[in-house]
Amino acid sequence: LLAQRRFPEALAKTEEAMRYRSDQAEAVVLRGRALAGLGRHSDASEAFARADRMDRAAIDRGDGREDWAVALARSGRFDEAAAQFRRLVASATLAASRARFKAALGLCLLQLGPDKIEDAIAAARDALLDDRNLLLARWALVLGLDRSRPARGSSGWTELEGARVDLPEAG
To answer: How far, in Å, CA of 82 to CA of 98, rounded?
Structure first.
């Protein structure tokens, strides 16, 4: 049902399953996915956190942790989302996945304010080392560099993987 994007039905089925086996972390992960599909990201985040407390392995099977990180970010809990993306980076075995997680980490860090801009830039640069064509990483890097301009005292020109990129002036 989730693959068919039939989220209301999927939520009803997971809640029915949980009535019989409330100790099944896998069902709680599926509930989180259904809630996220319905746009209820805060509720989804809580479901994923519950599944993680029940059985950490359940959240790490499939894309559970990534779904949790995205739900946290979409509910505005960027510090918690960043923590989950860091775990994903550490456990990723494929360079493309690792790059995607690093780019998402960079975007979350940008939301945490000026103190995290340098960390966000570093995450985006690291993502480009894993996958130099990842548009999300390029966007995160340009955004981070643009936000850091006042602190760096730089002009609107920034280096991005050897190419000059003209950043528009804010305002």
So the answer is: 14
The amino acid at residue 62 is G
Specify whether the CB–CB gap between 32 and 51 falls below 8 A. Answer: yes
CA dist 150 and 76 (Å) reads 25
DSSP state letter for 156: S
Phi, psi at 162, each rounded to 5°:
85, -5
In this structure, the number of other CB atoms found within 10 A of the CB of residue 98 comes to 20
Give the integer Cα–Cα distance in Å for 135 and 113.
Answer: 23
Q: Which of 2-6, 53-57, 82-86, 111-115 has the lowest mean pLDDT?
A: 2-6
Quote the distance between the C-alpha of residue 63 and its chain's center: 11
| 55 Cβ contact partners less than 8 Å away, ≥ 6 residues apart | 25, 26
